[in-house]
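With this grant's support, we have settled on a layout for protein records. An illustrative entry appears below exactly as we store it:
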Amino acid sequence: MYTKPFKNLDEASTIICTAFELQDASGMNLISYFMKEARRKNDASILIQAYTAETDFYRRLNHLLAQLPFQKYTTEDRNRWYVQYVAIIDTSSQFAKFGWKGITYRGMMVTEEDLNEYKIGDWIVNNAFLSTSKDRAEAEKFICVPKPNKIPLITKYLVTRDRSALDISSTSEFKDEQEVLILPNAVFKVATIMRDKRPIEIELSDK
């Protein structure tokens, strides 16, 4: 698990804004602003606004998280800024107001090989954040344009546990998207696979 959050928001701001992996990332001026606001207000939940902003920050963050070995972190891993970023979201009480349970959707274009990796009864864990929507129509926007050798897929998530997902629609730049963020290391079981539907639909549950 992610077990080592930043010591405080001053440390979070300094480490994130000077991170080597973010030095050439677009939009870092905006990220620096959010970090300063989090420090000024002593409000860790503003870190979510940094994630939802349309910058390279969330892209780099998710790319780096995806490279981590699943739950086998070294001491060096636990000191990485992106691991600490997740840890503060996972442990700070200031994120409780974003806690969410219910049904949410994600639209993806996948290969046949990707699709075959889903098997009923299997448990799936993602290292990175997953952006989903409470509105199925929003998720379907991501699969409306055909792509060569890709299959449109809707994944439907039933969230029942605390700390599995955050409703970040109130802080997002795009409130109409009704975004729900599934957190790293949330575990979901493949409940059903409906290949006869168009688009193909897979239901997953954290029960």
